[in-house]
Write a structure and sequence with these properties.
The chain has 467 residues and is an alpha/beta fold. The chain has 13 helices and 13 strands. It has two domains: 78-332, 3-Layer(aba) Sandwich (Aspartate Aminotransferase, domain 2); 340-463, Aspartate Aminotransferase, domain 1. The strands form three sheets. The chain has a seven-stranded mixed β-sheet with strand order 1-7-6-5-4-2-3, with helices on both faces. Bound molecules: pyridoxal-5'-phosphate.
């Protein structure tokens, strides 16, 4: 049948057998941005509109600003798709997922050297932020119960941590009404120190927060020395102050690359540890973990037993519903890689970070901030004098597609601006070489043009947005 041009216009899009998605009316009109549209649209049109708009996002493979996983094996992706429709909290309906969750908690507790005589417990979370809040909340409750038992006031809890922590620590202090006793960075020390911890703790300290690989420079707080200090204080003054280790990034690197480095439950005051499954646990976002050394470190009052969907279920999370797929993907990685696989991957990423750091150092333009290379990141600042700053360099290499963060350090080191390259599994030696050449080229161009950006203003609010 021949269709005249005018009639063709009147036909519904779905009736035009020859019409491509892009020739439908949905691509002639703008997309609603404030009000939900009155009418529906075909699935292919909705897909294409959203898909195309998201092309404006950066390329995850070139995103070296984030610690979060951007690549998983096809088999892992298959498991993720197969399980994406399961609500993790429906334990009665999906009991095997809960069994797997329990196995993962066991494996992590052992990876973190939980003592044989302890019964470690833990849970999956949406990320390290939720994990940290749950751990610190447990410490607040344990401190309160100890104070109540001793007939002492419990209205002024405090927590000691450094400004080298992630914003979620500040959030905990504010959301849960605990006085934060902050330890600032200095121009030549970007972690907390034992002396500064000693100056801030007292009988109302619910916990000392330490970081295994800071978000800012990747360095580690002196966890063992702080543990020794707290053991001494416990003996001398009777204050039993726990340590929480934020192993968001380091928790899946250090056990494999530096197994003899003591930062975990081998240290007696370390009572809880968080780690991000979605960082070097090599799972897509959002998955975190919190593990307590022993069940006695987790007050029972905080575990709710809900009668839900046919069974009694214990729950200690800030969220209720969440996806199961990432928990299952973590299990896939543990089975598939084993300790051997994680060790190989983590050694590789550390070596590629070292390679990049060495090449950049050799240009004599940069000062490396994390020589110890606890984490596979390259944190560097520009040597003075320079005609440009790290914000210029970050913007310049963005023209090639590379996404690399540049930021100023928190108070009192806010005058120091640094650039950070996070090396992940997918960043090969070949990519390191290409990035190195691009950075050198960008520096040469900036030598000619001078600064091309307005340096980011420094304020303690803005600095902690990096992840
Ligand atoms: C040391 C540290 N702690 C906590 C977090 C927060 O983790 P999440 O994004 O998993 O909530 C991050 C995030 O990058 C981090 O680097």
């Amino acid at each position: 049948m021949l269709i005249k041009k005018n009639n063709l216009e009147q036909l519904k899009d779905s009736e035009k057998g020859h019409a491509s998605t892009y020739s439908t009316r949905f691509f002639r009109e703008s997309v609603p941005k404030y009000e939900m549209p009155d009418k529906s649209m075909p699935a292919n049109a909705a897909y294409q509109l959203v898909h195309d708009e998201l092309n404006l996002d950066g390329n995850p493979a070139l995103n070296l600003a984030s610690f979060v996983t951007t690549w998983m094996e096809p088999e892992a992706r298959r498991l993720i798709i197969e399980n994406i429709h399961k609500n993790f909290i429906d334990h009665d309906e999906y009991p095997q997922t809960e069994v797997i969750h329990g196995r993962l908690v066991n494996m992590l507790a052992r990876l973190f050297n939980s003592p044989r005589e302890c019964t470690s417990i833990g849970t999956a979370t949406i990320g390290s932020s939720e994990a940290i809040m749950l751990a610190l909340l447990a410490h607040k409750w344990s401190w309160k119960k100890r104070r109540q038992k001793d007939g002492k006031p419990y209205d002024k809890p405090n927590i000691v941590f450094g400004t080298d922590t992630h914003i979620c620590w500040d959030k905990f202090a504010r959301y849960f009404d605990v006085e934060p006793r902050l330890i600032s960075m200095t121009k030549d020390c970007f972690t907390i120190t034992t002396d500064k911890v000693a100056q801030r703790i007292d009988e109302n300290t619910i916990c000392v927060g330490t970081i295994l690989g800071t978000t800012f420079t990747g360095e580690g707080d002196p966890i063992k020395k702080i543990n020794d200090l707290l053991l001494k204080i416990k003996k001398e003054k009777g204050w039993d102050i726990p340590i929480h280790v934020d192993g968001a990034s380091g928790g899946f690197v250090v056990p494999f690359v530096y197994p003899n480095f003591k930062w975990d439950f081998r240290l007696p005051q370390v009572k809880s540890i968080n780690v991000s499954g979605h960082k070097y646990g090599l799972v897509y976002p959002g998955l975190g973990w919190v593990i307590w050394r022993d069940e006695s470190d987790m007050p029972k009052e905080l575990i709710f037993k809900v009668n839900y969907l046919g069974g009694e279920m214990p729950t200690y999370t800030l969220n209720f519903s969440r996806g199961s797929a990432m928990v299952i993907a973590q299990y896939y990685n543990f089975l598939r890689l084993g300790k051997e696989g994680y060790r190989e991957i983590m050694t590789n990423v550390i070596n590629n970070a070292r390679y990049l750091a060495k090449r950049l150092s050799a240009t004599r333009r940069f000062i490396m901030l994390n020589e110890a290379q606890l984490l596979p990141i390259v944190a560097l600042r520009l040597k003075e004098p320079s005609k440009f700053n790290v914000f210029d360099l970050s913007a310049k290499i963005r023209e090639r597609g590379w996404i690399i963060s540049a930021y100023t350090l928190p108070p009192d080191a806010q005058d120091i601006a640094i650039m950070r390259v996070v090396v992940r599994e997918r960043f090969s030696r070949d990519m390191a070489e290409i990035l190195f050449n691009d950075i050198v080229k960008a520096c040469k161009e900036l030598d000619k043009t001078g600064s091309i950006t307005v340096a980011a203003a420094s304020s303690d609010v803005d600095q902690k947005h990096i992840c």
